[in-house]
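Hi all, posting the design record for the shared folder.

TITLE: backbone redesign
STEP: 1 of 1
STRUCTURE INPUT:
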């Protein structure tokens, strides 16, 4: 593993974190859109600024994932040779990092996932008949469950994801 691969991996880890944060912000959009009716220009400006703040981690994470190779060129010093090997296998390192990210996501999101799913199916939460709160509970449950599923995917299939990433990285290159 050379310095360029290590920096690319670090940037992609940050982008996965931002995407997960963006997914967790999506349920809040329902309450905000229902609270601000864009009848006038002020409502449109407020709604646009709030939605931009909510969606920005998701969008930045996605953009960061795709432009990570270009950013790596600026991280690595041009005087330093980026081909200096660090004694570490890329696939093993990626698998380890993906497992750690999966464990972190599961540890932080799975308790909320279980709690919200239980509340959604047993109606143990008192909502006083307001439909928007029921919808918000549903959206929160879906979002948290998606994040938990992402954590489980990273945890149990990190080797396959790492192999897929290495195949994507070497796609179209000649074997030398």
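Okay, here is what came back for every position:
SEQUENCE:
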């Amino acid at each position: 593993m050379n310095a360029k691969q290590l920096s690319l991996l670090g940037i992609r880890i940050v982008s996965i974190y931002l995407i997960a944060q963006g997914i967790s912000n999506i349920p809040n959009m329902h309450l905000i859109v229902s609270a601000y009716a864009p009848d006038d220009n002020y409502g449109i400006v407020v709604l646009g600024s709030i939605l931009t703040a909510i969606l920005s981690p998701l969008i930045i994470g996605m953009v960061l994932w795709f432009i990570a190779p270009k950013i790596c060129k600026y991280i690595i010093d041009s005087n330093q040779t980026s081909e200096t090997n660090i004694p570490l296998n890329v696939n093993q390192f990626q698998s380890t990092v993906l497992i750690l990210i999966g464990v972190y996501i599961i540890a932080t999101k799975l308790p909320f996932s279980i709690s919200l799913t239980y509340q959604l199916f047993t109606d143990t939460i008192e909502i006083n008949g307001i439909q928007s709160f029921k919808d918000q509970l549903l959206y929160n449950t879906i979002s948290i469950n998606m994040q938990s599923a992402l954590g489980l995917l990273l945890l149990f299939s990190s080797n396959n994801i790492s192999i897929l990433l290495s195949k994507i990285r070497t796609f179209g290159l000649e074997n030398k």
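COMMENT: Residues 7 and 75 are 7 Å apart (CA to CA).
Let me know if anyone wants the other runs.
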